[in-house]
Amino acid sequence: MNDNALREQMVNLAQSLFMRGYSSGGSGNLSARLQDGGYLITPTNSSLGSLDPATLSELDKNGNWLSGEKPSKEALMHLAFYQQRADVGGVVHLHSTWLTALSCLPGLDATNCLPPITPYYVMRVGKLPLIRYLRPGHPELADEVGKQASGHNAMLLANHGPVVGGSSLREAVFNAEELEDTARLWFTLRPHGLVTLTDEQVAELHTAFNTKKAS
Q1: Would the pTM count as exceeding 0.85?
Q2: What is its EC number (predicted)?
């Protein structure tokens, strides 16, 4: 996909997320890897519902700001994901309701905040580790994301929200949507009890769809 087409896609996907309540106000940010090794990222304090393809922030491969409006203060977090995963072409960070609520709960399993409820959660996300609370834009937040990115497609920032990668921006958005739906299902089922996939069923999915590397 050429750069202009990627800019249009980022705007369209961001607007779709905004209209469906995955972000509000100036929250959340999206990024994508460019053909030359640089990156596009949504500008700081911009609404995902009203982005302009021409003013998206463009960074070089080292994260230096080249053009467009000032990049999101969380750009370093995105870059840390890309630096650990050559196979990742897009990263999505949202303040979506169910996952943000999950990130505020006590007693979460820091190695995996959600059980394997559905096969699509297993295939798209695998496991969801928790990253300790650090303020938005804190340099150590990028370090923590980098530590987890090599083995995970997604992670949950405590009291903040999810960070999700994918082979493309479109795939990252799909992964983020699946993850949000899984959190919603978990909250819905929690009062009633739930049946999760067994270790054997999870292993079968990883084998059948070759997803173990990114889980």
Answers
A1: yes
A2: 4.1.1.104
